[in-house]
Amino acid sequence: MKVSSPGAAVEKVAGDGIKAWNSGGSHLLARRVMQLIMVLVGSAVLWMFLYSSASPFGSPTLLSHYFMDYSAKAEYDPKLKSVLRNASMKDNTVIITTLNDAWAEPGSIFDLFLESFRLGNQTKKFLKHLVVITWDQKAHTRCLALHKHCYHLETKGDNFTGEAFFMTADYLNMMWRRIEFLGSVLDMGYNFVFTDTDIMWLRDPFKRFYKDADFQIACDFFNGDSYNLDNYPNGGFNYVKSSSRTIRFYKFWFNSRSAYPKLHDQDVLNKIKKSAFISNMNLKIRFLSLIILAAFVSMQRTSTRSQQCMSIVVLV
Ligand SMILES: *[C@@H]1O[C@H](CO)[C@@H](O)[C@H](O)[C@H]1NC(C)=O
Ligand SMILES: *[C@@H]1O[C@H](CO)[C@@H](O)[C@H](O)[C@H]1NC(C)=O
Ligand SMILES: *[C@@H]1O[C@H](CO)[C@@H](O)[C@H](O)[C@H]1NC(C)=O
Predict the structure, then answer these.
(1) Quick one: which ligand is closest to 100's CA?
(2) Predicted confidence band at 53 (pLDDT cuts at 50, 70, 90)?
(3) Ligand 3 close to Cβ of residue 279 (< 6 A)
(4) How confident is the model at residue 101 (pLDDT cuts 50, 70, 90)?
(5) Whose CA is nearest to atom 9 of ligand 2?
(6) Helix-helix angle 265-272:169-187, to 10 degrees
(7) Predicted TM-score (pTM) of this structure
(8) CA distance 270 to 287
(9) Does residue 1 sit within a domain?
């Protein structure tokens, strides 16, 4: 299946559902969205399968020896400061995603991602607050061609250009570098919404975020209680407010990598979420009731990889 433009690809994903955002009445829209959900539910099973290797809920672990000197203030790249300042909302919030060459090619996920802001219901305004963190020069060039706020994150020794397959060493390094980076964004005084590039922004998530939480995160499995730490977090979408608590929490999370060298950030979070360190600091964690659905979209970016996994978040 040849998909030539991002617009066409969106239609491939959503059928007529997306068109209804522009033209239909609200009943028609609701029905179309329901149809879309039904179609995608099947694919979600496949997506869950991808995550089935994830460890079961771990027991709470006390990792007090991962305390560090939290008082030391790092020096940050003036370029990064400038990018964040330019993209920031009035309340110091930015929207952040990360991009490497594998997802940046024309007609690829990144185009769809940007398109979703334009197609969504009152989501276009968020584009001017979106900061795209690029892992390599090609992705950076592509970002600059399409978007205003791009920042190339230097990664010493690592090469994140190619597609980093789930749980390979490159994948793990990239995920952990991301956590470290997001921690520094908090340290610089910015709140952020982190969004994976394969999440389509069709609605305003700020209307659904909890007002009083420090750290709110999407789930792979939501058990109905947003406070319940047994929910299984999904690192692809979260909203974090900058405070001394969240800054310490991100350092703790990042430093916990060494205790679980084979796990990625999301599974480590799942291990440490009940730790005494976190409960003692009174970090307010909430889980978002998102239905995350996946669809395999035929993108035909290259001859070798014709399919990419895409998730669509529906706020319920
Ligand atoms: C867009 O969102 C507003 C409120 O958030 C809602 O009233 C309106 O019906 C939505 N429009 C569509 C086309 O769904
Ligand atoms: C931020 O905005 C200012 C003013 O528009 C501009 O001069 C500067 O180059 C921007 N910074 C970056 C990193 O794009
Ligand atoms: C990074 O890896 C890509 C292939 O994935 C390769 O083409 C490129 O030359 C590498 N870059 C560096 C700096 O090693």
Answers:
(1) 3
(2) very low
(3) no
(4) confident
(5) 82
(6) 60
(7) 0.74
(8) 12
(9) no
